[in-house]
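INTERNAL AUDIT FORM
Audit reference: QA-55
Scope: verify that the stored structure record matches its stored sequence.
Auditor: D.O.
Record contents follow.
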Amino acid sequence: MDIEAKKLLLIQQLLLVKQESILDKIENLLKINSSNLTTEQKNAIDKALVSSENNNKVSHKDAIKELSEKFPQYFN
């Protein structure tokens, strides 16, 4: 599913929401997402999501191993 199809699906689902509290939470999430991240961070997240969709994933175990080798001061 491409990004435009996902957006349309989300819009359709959003139109079915009956609880204002859920809409408030979604609105807050969108505000947080757009206001706190730089363009570079947003692009990195988008790139990671595309990579994940293409099954380019790293296990938690492998990620921790790589990070502990690169930043040993944070892993005691």
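Auditor finding: record pair retrieved intact. The mean pLDDT is 87.
Action required: none
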